[in-house]
Sequence to fold (223 residues):
Amino acid sequence: MDNPNHKGNVAELAICTEAAKLGLSVLKPLTEHERYDLVLGMGRELFKVQCKWGSLHDGFIQVRLRSSYHSPTRGYVVATYASTEVDFVGVYCDELCRCYLLPASLFEARSMVHLRLDPTRNRQQASLNWAADYEFRGAVAQLAERSDGIRKVRGSIPLSSTGRDSESAPTHEEVGAHEFRNRFGLYMERAAAGCEILIRRRGMPYARLGPPVLNATLAPADD
Fold:
């Protein structure tokens, strides 16, 4: 399958099918030349999604994120995607018959991304994007958690001009792994103020973050 338009159509249909299986609303723009291919509806939220074909290579899926068009004044223009244009990039890998959903932190201003399936030969651990972390079903489960997150919190989190109102801070909160990673500093502050954060990965409990135990005795760190 070498035709780029054919690949794009297959990827878009596969992602629409996967979304429909999960009970999401699937909407298509009536006008052409939008930066997104479709809109996924979940509850009261709508998410703009650009669909891409993922090519299987040796141990990873390669996703090309650049788009190109011809401008009367600028000529041939190659552009990347911004979070103001697209909420997610949906990826379909035909060899695996599997869909993925990439957040803005992974695609914004990037021309290509690799989703790892197997460990690297040089045993690199840092800065890897594991395909399993972005599988469509798990990503949608985390979106549902985020959309429903306010109702899960016991209390509200009003913000003042100087920061968070600690007196009304919740005692417990649940968050998806992607959201936690993207807003790590915010959740660190909430935990330090006394909120216990449960981090879920693909819908399952994964880790817990909470305030320090003041009376705990910590072993000295090795120099």
Observations:
- The two ends are 57 Å apart (CA to CA).
